[in-house]
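Section 5.1 Outputs to date
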Amino acid sequence: MKSFTAKLNSAVSTVNILMVDDRPENLIALEAILASPNYRLFSAHSGEEALRHVLTTDFAVILLDVQMPGMNGFETARLIKMRERSKYVPIIFITAISQAAEHVKHGYSVGAIDYIFKPFHPETLKMKIEAFVQMYQYQEQIKLQNELLKVIGETSNDTIVTVDEYGMMQTLNPTAAKMFGYTPDKLAGQHIDQIVPAMSSFLSAENIQGTQLIETTAVRKDSIPFPVDVQIGKASIAQQQLYVCSIRDVTDRKMMEEERFRKIFDTTPCLIALRSMKDQRYINVNESLLQATGFEGIELMNQTSDLLQYIVETEERGDSASNRHNPWEPVRNVRIRYMTKSGDLRDGLLSSEVMQVHGEECLLSVVTDISERVFLEREITRLDRLNITGEMAAGIVHEIRNPMTTVRGFLQLSKSNPSKEYTDIMIEELDRVHNIVTEFLAVGAQAPTSRKLKQINTVIETLFPLIQSKAMTGNHDIALDLGECPPIQLDEKEIRQLVLNLVLNGLDAMPLGGILTIKTYSDDKEVVMEVRDEGSGIKEEFLAKLGTPFFSTKSSGTGLGLSVSYGIAARHDAVIKVQTGEWGTIFSVNFRL
């Protein structure tokens, strides 16, 4: 833009000035006064010579002596003004004769724009000439700009429209006839909404800041719509707000975009359906969807009923509950199940988006089939359970065999030497077997939880006398640091077991005189319960095995208590985290809000 302005300024920087006087000394005096590198001065000694100059050269201003032999100044001015090319050139009469009103009036009547009487003040003359030169330069700039805009408008492939603040079209370039089927004169004075519906809603000082590009739809004379890009700029001319709109037909570009979309639509392994938001009909579906569901294209196209049924998987209880999905609600990667034509249910991830297609509002639904992945996950889970079951079976056999061997040995001794001591030992060993079996059954229990809104602090406070009694038998202390926590969904019976398991493990890990701290707190996302002991910590290599049945850091432990605790936490959508070191161990249970 700066280089363009520089070229315009250069084109009108040097101007031509014509001086007409029959006396050479007067011309010399004028040349001396007006000498400037910005002026090109022309001299004429008669009216006839002045007319010859005017025929070949454009002048910014003409200084014309009134009293000349032959053709005087008045006649010369009249002839200059008769010529179209020079009729608007300002003429300043210079005279030393009559200053009478009728004489001056005659000068103005033949086209003079000013009158200077001899003798004149040189600086006054220079200032007047500079004023007329500036006006000339400004007019020339406008002429060049208008000519350039005219050429741009006539050669542009875009329709260029000027619109007033009321949305009425003022001017249009010739491209409008080709683009819209109207001649420019037929559209001038009409509302812009006639060719670009609802365009007037964008034309306001609040909406248009600088230039703005709008993607919309235009309409031809034959009522056929087509996509356009409209670039809008605003201008103020003579205190009137105008908008310049460049309208470009982007049908070819949209067709290329649609072709790319079509290739993606047809070749992607995802299941894609395009439906109208207006009448809910199926506009198109891809081949992957047809193959996965078993439908034929003719069965789906233009149908308005929900032939493809999506069922959202939610976790309302311990097991999953199925809810039918609202197909007109945009979503992102929602886990769903969808039904095939044969009635089979398959798993998928659904994403949908509302979009414009050929001016029609549509819903694009994309389903990524994850049935194979879900099947593999279930198989892996099943194999993991078998593996765990094998490990647990081996562990329980080992744990039960030891007390059973003891019982059998004392039974044999009792045959020959009955003893109350032997009986007490056998009862103790049988109780141990009973406890192992009870804990084993607790690990495998999958009964649904019965959760209600409950304060976790209330559960802890209820257990506190029992916990304190247990701590005192081992010469330990219990410290409570219960912060303010909101109610959460809890199964009180299970949470009691969870708290007791963690507390008893912490008490067993501490030497005499240790302090076990139970702390609770919350933030915007979760409620946290911490159990902190002052033991020697857990070795790093053991951390990954915590919660595994029959793994324990205690010599007489089975590891089932912590395994049960992890299961309770999982059923409450909570996470157990462990921090450990030489200072002790913290087990934190994080419940999501």
